[in-house]
Each structure stands twice: as structure tokens, then as C-alpha cells.
């Protein structure tokens, strides 16, 4: 497939009294045409820095970037009309209506006024388009931001946390909209912390941690490369779960207790579980492989999984770049 977005060896450093922080340290990413591509990373990992650099808002220290086959930032004016973007929290004038806001943006961008009605319909604001933005909830303002990014009918749509403030119904509507746009030929780069949604909606993902790419590929391939050897075990009713878990632990199994089941994390040979328990007259009613999900893979790759007895601080992993 043709690459709509290419980033290679991207570097960005910041200097302060604390030293030098490498926000981006040779970061790479490729987004192919017509895909919904998830861009994932913990707070402070370099996601927003990447997007701001790509859009010419920050000057990089090194590396190469291209949008629609044109090198940026030098050719950004030539491709800007084909890119729609929301980066961080968008701000609007509270006394303007959504219609006023989008009409002004349409006039400034040379977009026909009829497009305003179309994007208000797309994002579900048709009936609130004449209300002042100051009366909008956070989720409604987010819908307005997405509408503004869609005004130009872009070939590449870049969205940073588009589900911020949306209720469950709104999140589902946003998911449907992203798929519809992709099916129409638009390429969507989607940054989000709602990993379950990313797994449902995206064709491919790139995961960044401490300014470096730690995984990329189709969602299926990324999950398959971190396939779990864990199995979920349920026993016959009335059997003591804790007692069964202790029997397996004594044989070297890594067991985590659930409410009515337990998980064995190092079950390379699940038949051993049934054999060991049967020797104690304990019989298994269900033995199910535990498939990896995007959240567990993300936590493993970025080193941000919670640790019992510890309070991980914001940017703890990314902050390792200071003073290096």
C-alpha cells in the first residue's frame, strides 16, 4: 500500500536546568493509505510531540517526515489543505455558535459553506449547531473539534484523544464515524488511551515509549507476537479455589486468583494442571487459553503496568531521558 505518512529517525530534545530530555529518540512510523492507525503511548512518551512536530508546530532536531509523499515541514504548505488535525484540547469562543465557528473556519480555508451542515450532521451536532459553544459539554466540544478537522474533507485525519469527554454512546458513534471515513478512502491517525476502542477500530498500531518505537504492525500481528501462555481455570462448584491454587503453586505454577476462577500464567503444558489437580481429587470444569489483549501488551511494552505496593508517578518511564 501507499504510505500516507512516513516518519524516520525523528529526534527532538529539550534543554532546561534539569538537563537534556530526549522527547523523541529516533522515532519511526509508517501509516498506509485508507487505514485507521492507532498511535499509542503513556503520558510523556512523545506522542503529542510527534504530532506537533509533524504539523510544523515544533521544529525537530533530526530525522525525516513526509505527508502524502511530500517532505515536511518544508512542503507543509502544499499538503496542509489535505490534512485535518486535532492536537491536544481544542479551544473555541464560547459566545459563538457551532455554526458560526465552522463557518468562519470554512471561509478562512476556502471551503464551501454547505460543508458546515454536512460535518455537523456527521458528528451529531445538527440540532445544537445554533447554540452557543459555552453551553456545550466537554463531549460536545470534542465533537465540534472533530467537525472542524473534517471541514476540508482531508485525505489524512489526525485525531488526538477524540473520545475525550464522550459518553459510551458517543464513543461508539465516534468509532462508527472513524470506520466510515476509512471506508470512504480517508486515512485516520488516532491517538487514544482507550485501548479497548483502539483494538476494536484500528487496522494497525504504533506504540511509543520514552521517545522510541517499541511495536508496530497490524493489531492482530502485535497481539500474536505477545501471545500469552496463560490459561483460565474453573473448577467444579464447591471446590476450594485457594486450596487448589496452593497445590499448583507448590509445583511451580504462577497462579492469580479471580472471583470464581484462577489464572495460571506459565501454563506451557495445560494438561499438567488437570493431572496435578486430579491427583488431589480436584477436577477441572473449564480450561480456557487467556488471549492477549492490547491493554496487557501495551503495559508490558511500555513498562507501565501497576506494581503491588508501589505508586508509579506520572512520566516515570519517560523521565529517564533527563540528564542523559
TrEMBL record:
Domain ABC transporter: 5-235
Pfam family, one: ABC_tran
Keywords: ATP-binding, Nucleotide-binding, Transport
ATP-binding keyword on record: yes
Family matches, as InterPro entries: AAA+_ATPase (IPR003593), ABC_transporter-like_ATP-bd (IPR003439), ABC_transporter-like_CS (IPR017871), P-loop_NTPase (IPR027417)
Keyword match Cell division: no
Record-linked SMART domains: AAA
A GO molecular-function annotation: ATP binding
Matching SUPFAM superfamilies: P-loop containing nucleoside triphosphate hydrolases
Superkingdom of this protein's organism: Bacteria
Family statement: Belongs to the ABC transporter superfamily.
Identification of the protein by name: ABC transporter ATP-binding protein
Protein species of origin: Paractinoplanes ferrugineus
Amino acid at each position: 500500500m501507499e504510505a500516507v505518512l512516513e516518519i524516520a529517525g525523528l529526534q527532538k530534545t529539550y534543554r532546561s536546568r534539569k538537563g537534556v530530555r530526549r522527547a523523541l529518540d529516533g522515532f519511526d512510523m509508517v501509516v498506509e493509505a485508507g487505514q485507521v492507525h492507532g498511535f499509542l503511548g503513556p503520558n510523556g512518551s512523545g506522542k503529542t510531540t510527534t504530532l506537533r512536530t509533524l504539523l510544523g508546530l515544533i521544529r525537530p532536531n533530526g530525522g525525516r517526515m513526509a505527508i502524502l509523499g511530500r517532505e515536511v515541514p518544508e512542503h507543509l504548505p502544499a499538503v496542509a489543505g489535505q490534512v485535518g488535525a486535532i492536537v491536544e484540547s481544542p479551544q473555541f469562543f464560547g459566545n459563538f455558535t457551532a455554526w458560526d465557528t465552522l463557518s468562519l473556519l470554512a471561509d478562512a480555508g476556502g471551503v464551501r459553506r454547505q460543508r458546515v451542515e454536512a460535518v455537523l450532521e456527521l458528528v451529531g451536532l445538527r440540532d445544537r449547531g445554533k447554540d452557543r459553544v459555552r453551553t456545550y459539554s466537554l463531549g460536545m466540544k470534542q465533537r465540534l473539534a472533530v467537525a472542524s478537522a473534517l471541514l476540508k474533507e482531508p485525505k489524512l485525519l489526525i485525531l488526538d484523544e477524540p473520545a475525550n469527554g464522550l459518553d459510551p454512546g458517543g464513543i461508539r458513534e465516534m468509532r462508527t464515524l472513524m470506520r466510515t471515513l476509512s471506508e470512504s478512502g480517508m486515512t485516520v491517525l488516532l491517538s487514544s488511551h482507550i485501548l479497548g476502542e483502539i483494538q476494536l477500530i484500528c487496522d494497525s498500531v504504533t506504540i511509543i515509549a520514552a521517545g522510541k518505537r517499541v511495536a508496530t504492525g497490524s493489531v492482530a500481528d502485535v497481539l500474536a507476537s505477545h501471545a500469552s501462555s496463560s490459561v483460565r481455570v474453573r473448577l467444579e462448584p464447591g471446590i476450594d479455589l485457594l486450596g487448589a491454587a496452593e497445590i499448583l503453586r507448590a509445583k511451580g505454577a504462577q497462579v492469580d486468583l479471580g472471583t470464581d476462577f484462577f489464572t495460571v500464567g506459565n501454563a506451557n503444558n495445560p494438561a499438567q494442571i488437570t493431572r496435578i489437580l486430579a491427583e488431589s481429587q480436584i477436577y477441572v470444569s473449564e480450561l480456557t487459553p487467556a488471549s492477549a489483549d492490547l491493554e496487557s501488551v501495551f503495559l508490558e511494552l511500555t513498562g507501565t503496568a501497576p506494581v503491588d505496593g508501589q505508586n508509579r508517578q506520572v512520566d516515570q518511564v519517560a523521565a529517564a531521558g533527563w540528564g542523559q
